[in-house]
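Quick start: read one record
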Amino acid sequence: MSSCGYFRSAAENGTLPSLAELRACFLADEALPEGRRKEWSSAFRSFAKGLGQPMEVISSDPVELRRLLRGVTPAMAGFRPGRWRNVLSLVTTALAHLGIIVVQSRIGTPPSAEWLAILGLLEPGQERHFHAWRFARYCTVRDIQPAAVDDAVLETYLADLEHRSLVAEPVRAAREVARLWNAAADLHPAWPQCRLTVPDHRLTFSPPLSSYPQTLRDDIERWRAWLGGDDPFTNRPFSPLRPASMATRLRQMRAYLGALVESSIDPASMVDLASVVTPAMTRVALRIFWERAGRKSSAHTFQMGALVLQIGKYWAKLPEADVEELRNMMRQLRPAHSGMSPRTEGRLRAAVEDQDRLDRLLTLPGLLMDKACRAGLPGQRLAQMAQTAVLIDILLHLPVRLENLGHLRLGVHLIRGPGKSITVDIPADETKNEMPISGPLPKDVSKRIDFYIDRFRPFLNPTASDWLFPGAVPGQPKTGEGLRSQIRKAAATHCGLILNPHVFRSLTGYLTLRDDRGAHGKVQRILGHKSLATTMAHYSGLEASMAIADYGDLMGTLRADAMARGAYRKKPRPTSNPAPGGKR
């Protein structure tokens, strides 16, 4: 069996070699031109370097490779965009040659005449049509004509996308094919009239409340009113919740009820909140969250348990024995880790431990604004770029939460001062911790904001409003997801970092403490923490790293001092006194 046939068989059986083994195979294949072997070999080395792992430990399984590549930008891999695209193309071509991949991002075989005839019916210039052309080439290779396409063909295509390709979003690619196919069949009589089932692999953990009895829905509404009511005489052991917190509680309750349904609990049996927060029901639901978290404690599972305990004790008024049983579950589920999450800490370390990437992040607002100004006549695309510059600029200097960032309003939260200065002023009733945020922005930041408002914001705000970051819906601010996506994409593309808006708060604390090790009170005031203990717990892991680095510097200084004092200078060997008459 040839190497290609061997690897194709291995791919079908799910037993695949490492990239190092593949490289050795094609380097030994004298049927391949020497230039191609060298090109593929170089691409494999660059690919492994970009992923930060040796080829010997990287499996050639497309599913694993797609996982490793998820979210990796050229900047993260350490290559220029053109070179990284070339590396991915060469690696994909090599894997296809060896039979591991059967669907390339761009299939070289042209569609058959039958496929070209129906593809010509599509409106030109639509980017999504790329999915249809790739599907047509895939079918042409397998001698499948348009009239033979049905759900079975689409399912095979999806399976190959998922298990035998490096296409980044296989389900989305197949879904786009089905949507476009059905839309074309509706518009064009000449298009094959078979309708395709649109793949839907979404995980629905939270069924709508309409799935449950009316009595439970009524009880949930009364509970929500109890959580947020403004009556000071309400018997409630905490202050009324704000609307955002109430919305979070409702999402948590839907997820909790969804876990019960997933465990085969009949929704009809859930007649009120008291019936769903008993210890037996709680144990069933929390086990689902525990399993999803990899059979270990997690902050999410603990929060769900805290919600149930609160409802059971104060709303449903369960017997004390049941409440104590719920408390015991909470003790068992409390995560061992406190403070900054490991994921956030890892993303922060990637920024602060690589000075080049940190420098690129700190100068990114100026870079983006300069590019937007020099790229030509302003339009929506350049306005988005300038908007991203302002978003990151504000987060670097005043790390507010995403909700407050997205709801900044001109003349309300951004106050003009003398000399074109700008002060941010957010009242306490609009912040999560009910702590006001107020502070001036540096002159260069104020200047970029002014430039964005005057030159670029009108392209994003056709209907006049006072939102600094207007949204697509007239009169509404941009959604938090839209802002988050802009910030993440810019940080990944230009700095090689995975940063969401919240990581900027951690970055502020770290940089402040790195400059002044004892400045916890300053960090507390900047970030608006109510408790100093929160600040200290949040940065304890990073402070340990800084302390070790400080000790390393101290040891280096002491060692240099010791060497300066001649610790390694050779001393003359002592001479022994020979016996009288003896030889020296």
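Residues 540-564 form the longest helix (25 residues).
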